[in-house]
Write a structure and sequence with these properties.
Blueprint: H1 2-14, H2 34-47, H3 50-56, E1 58-61, H4 75-83, E2 89-91, H5 96-109, E3 117-120, H6 133-137, H7 142-158, E4 163-164, H8 188-203, E5 216-220, H9 239-246, H10 248-255, E6 260-263, E7 267-268, E8 271-272, H11 277-287, E9 293-295, H12 304-307, H13 313-323, E10 328-329, H14 333-343, H15 349-365, H16 378-384, H17 388-401, E11 403-407, E12 420-424, H18 450-457, E13 463-467, E14 473-474, E15 484-485, H19 493-502, E16 505-511, H20 532-542, E17 546-551, H21 559-564, E18 567-570, H22 578-586, E19 650-652, E20 656-657, E21 661-662, E22 668-676, E23 682-692, E24 703-712, E25 717-724, H23 726-729, E26 731-732, E27 738-739, E28 743-750, E29 756-763
Parallel strand pairs: 1-2, 1-10, 2-3, 3-4, 5-6, 6-9, 12-13, 12-16, 16-17, 17-18, 21-29
Antiparallel strand pairs: 7-8, 11-18, 14-15, 19-22, 20-22, 22-25, 23-24, 23-28, 26-27, 28-29
Bound molecules: 1-deoxynojirimycin.
Length: 764
């Protein structure tokens, strides 16, 4: 009896009981003072039974609509557990109506009324779709990416959801890997900057503001290095590569205060990430002093069994909890085994306490203890989702993400003399693929197609004709099912050929279906699927004035097109406003400014391909074959990292250094002048790379270390200044420490990773 009174007293003081039934929400800023939050966490923890603590570490799928093999408890049992306060979180429960329903079950039935946190995959938009992350990264525009994350976060919050499983910051250098589309490409520095921008966008300055949501740094770590680009496959990288290449974005995310981390499905050098103490305890929660919680990936704790490091769920739970995985996403291992493990003395209760405190901390920061229904506002839901203002942001993001890869004889922007445009291709009038694979609550077929965009923007009097040419896919397309492609139906070719012949210019829209990239969508061939190769050739034979608009989520093999098609526009999957964004480029309303965040190879066999390679011991060979190269292909990228054309030209001056050496505590300024020598306003991303000439371990030939996006009017010149300091040359050295080593460096500045001005300096 005494204990019961004490519990009620504490609950009242924490403000729980006031909200045990639904009340109308209003934004009340929560007390974010860390000392107060820690005190509250301790008070709650002191009330919890072991079962209730373990419950917080359990996350259920709510829609019973799986994104992987469901291995958890059946639905009735789930409901019972929710009522008994044995569940900490749910994923895939969306909308104010549904999140409120689920929250009510907990608030009205459970003993302690600890609110649920709802998570969902909002990767590039909730209902308004923005460009897929790889595409948007091509904008190199951090403010823009913060803005789209803010809008996506607001739509998510409006739908009652507190937490997104984004951003993904897996460095990926392999275009065969289907999930390359979900990240920011191949470079650690660019990935770090973009990760932080997106986290700021989602989380804002105050997590308790019901217009912001908690973000999640994923997948920790190494997932993008799957051997052969095959999803979920083994990762074999050493400690230096892990630290220098893969971990920097995660460290940046932790420093930026990301609320949560997600671990990953893969192993690294024999240790599955979910069971990695080095990653989760030593680094993340140890050296990095990060105080949020780690959620497993879907069932990744139970997957320790097929990985072959645990014989059953109980062993898997023991490994994962000891390694620092705090919440079990739909895996059923923690709920079935943790209690027994604690009772048997195999797992110390203080490990459970640490995990629970981390989870409660995020819930307090979100303000859920002040008002568990604070994200339940139908009026906000109605006004926010797919609003006109959000569509404008989608259009801005779309056009800034487009990369102009080729523009022979300035065929673009389309000239006034063009009076008849044939729009051809399986993706030309596709209103669905632009939405991408991770499309959250996007309405099917809701995007503006390229054909529609062209019709919206074409000057009066220009005739627009359309032929599909061929279907790309046949059969059902969906998140979980494999794609099937049209391998032989060319019955639409004749119409396409006829229209191409009649037209002054052809816009040929080809590439990938949205469901060709994403989870489980690895390919060995990154060329054009179906009969597209033949269609491209047929159209090119009929009319030489072809602008190819690519729609895709990965770098593709463009070897034939790059030689035979005069203009190539990389449009990725741009989201809701895809067609309008493309049309703004085609008709010159916006001057393209995107730069590739990932290298495009000469052919599939070159993958994995990335710009920041090492020299090897045999970089050059002369006439003989015994050096590092291919005998049947160049080894250089077809379109390199950082590359993208504009409708204007930029001329770079030479690099000027304020000094040619510096030491501890000093810095050098590197300046370069950039002039717009064309006759259109244009934006240029000025990129700075460094080469550490001799290191204690082998060093990349060049590494991106800074960039600045500038806008120049015709004839205008600007000087861009970069600071080179010790931090910029620090890396994870032979001593397994972050150090700056004395020696010579090359600094390179330019508009892509190949055409660069150079200078040298020394760190003493
Ligand atoms: C598995 C994916 O790997 C992860 O990125 C995603 O967040 C979860 N499923 C939840 O859908």
């Amino acid at each position: 009896m005494k204990k019961r009174v004490a519990i009620i007293g504490v609950l009242l003081s924490l403000g729980f009981l006031a909200f045990s039934t639904y009340e109308k929400p209003g934004f009340k800023k929560s007390d974010q003072d860390p000392r107060n939050i820690e005190q509250k966490i301790d008070s709650v923890l002191a009330l919890m039974t072991l079962d209730e603590k373990i419950g917080q570490m359990v996350q259920y799928n709510g829609s019973w609509d799986v994104t992987g093999p469901a291995t958890g408890t059946d639905n009735e049992k789930k409901l019972e557990n929710l009522k008994n306060g044995l569940v900490g979180s749910m994923l895939n429960v969306t909308s104010v109506e549904h999140t409120r329903q689920a929250q009510k079950i907990v608030m009205e039935n459970s003993r302690l009324k600890i609110p649920l946190i709802f998570g969902y995959d909002v990767i590039h938009g909730y209902q308004t779709m923005f460009p897929v992350p790889l595409g948007e990264s091509a904008s190199w525009d951090l403010e823009l990416m913060e803005k789209t994350a803010r809008v996506a976060g607001r739509e998510t919050a409006a739908a009652g959801v507190h937490w997104t499983f984004a951003p993904m910051m897996d460095i990926s250098r392999d275009a065969r890997w289907g999930r390359i589309m979900e990240g920011a490409g191949e470079d650690p520095y660019l990935n770090s900057k973009i990760a932080v921008a997106r986290i700021k966008g989602f989380q804002g300055n105050d997590l308790s503001d019901p217009k912001t949501i908690a973000a999640c740094a994923k997948h920790f770590a190494g997932y993008g290095f799957a051997e052969g680009g095959r999803d979920y496959n083994t990762v074999n990288i050493g400690i230096y590569e892990l630290n220098n290449t893969i971990l920097p974005p995660f460290k940046a995310a932790a420093d930026a205060g990301v609320a949560t981390f997600m671990n990953s499905f893969n192993e690294i050098d024999g240790v599955p990430a979910t069971a990695s103490t080095y990653l989760q305890r030593d680094l993340l929660k140890g050296k990095w002093h990060w105080d949020g919680f780690v959620v497993s990936d879907w069932g990744s704790i139970t997957e320790l069994i097929p990985h072959g490091v645990a014989k059953d769920k109980k062993a898997a739970a023991e490994l994962a909890v000891k390694a620092g995985s705090d919440m079990d996403m739909e895996g059923g291992a923690y709920e079935s085994s943790l209690k027994e493990l604690v009772e048997e003395g195999k797992v110390a209760e203080k490990l459970i306490d640490d995990a629970v405190k981390r989870i409660l901390r995020v819930k307090f920061r979100l303000g859920l203890f002040d008002d568990p229904y604070k994200y339940c506002d139908e009026a906000f839901e109605k006004s926010e989702l797919y609003s006109e203002a959000n569509q404008e942001v989608a259009l801005e993001a779309g056009k800034k993400s487009i990369v102009l890869l080729k523009n022979e004889n300035d065929i673009l922007p389309i000239k006034n003399s063009i009076k008849n445009i044939a729009v051809i291709g399986p993706l030309a009038n596709d209103k669905d693929s632009p939405l991408g694979n991770w499309r959250a609550h996007a309405v099917e077929n809701s995007a503006v197609s390229v054909l529609e965009g062209i019709r919206n923007y074409a000057p009066k009097g220009v005739k627009i004709t359309y032929a599909e040419g061929a279907k790309l896919s046949t059969g059902d397309r969906s998140f979980l099912n494999p794609m099937t492609f049209n391998k032989d139906d060319k019955s639409g070719f004749a119409e396409a050929e006829k229209l191409a012949k009649q037209a002054d210019l052809v816009v040929l829209v080809v590439g990938e279906d949205a469901f060709q990239t994403g989870e489980g969508r690895s390919q060995t061939n990154i060329g054009f699927a179906g009969v597209q190769d033949d269609l491209i050739e047929t159209v090119q034979k009929a009319n030489k004035n072809v602008v190819m608009v690519l729609m895709n989520g990965r770098p593709m093999d463009l070897s034939w097109s790059s030689k035979n098609i005069p203009a190539i526009v990389e449009s990725w999957f741009l989201g809701s406003q895809h067609g309008n964004a493309v049309a703004e480029i085609l008709f010159g309303k916006y001057n393209p400014s995107g730069k590739l965040p990932v290298s495009f190879p000469q052919n599939s066999g070159m993958e994995p391909l990335y710009y920041n390679q090492k020299s090897t011991g045999r970089p050059e060979g002369g006439a003989q074959v015994t050096y590092s190269h291919y005998t049947d292909s160049p080894r250089e990228a077809l379109y390199p990292f950082g590359f993208g054309l504009s409708f204007t030209e930029f001329e770079y001056g030479d690099i000027e250094l304020s000094a040619d050496s510096f030491s501890e505590g000093e810095k050098i300024e590197a300046s370069i002048s950039v002039k717009n020598t064309g006759n259109m306003v244009g934006e240029e991303t000025v990129q700075l790379y460094l080469h550490d000439l001799v290191g204690s371990i082998t060093r990349p030939n060049l590494e991106l270390k800074a960039f600045e996006k500038i806008s120049l009017k015709p004839g205008e010149r600007k000087v861009v200044n970069f600071i080179i300091d010790k931090e910029m040359i620090t890396y994870f050295t032979i001593n397994k420490k972050w150090e700056a080593e004395a020696g010579d460096f090359e600094v390179m500045i330019g508009g892509n990773s190949v055409d660069l001005k150079k200078a040298n300096f020394e760190f003493k």
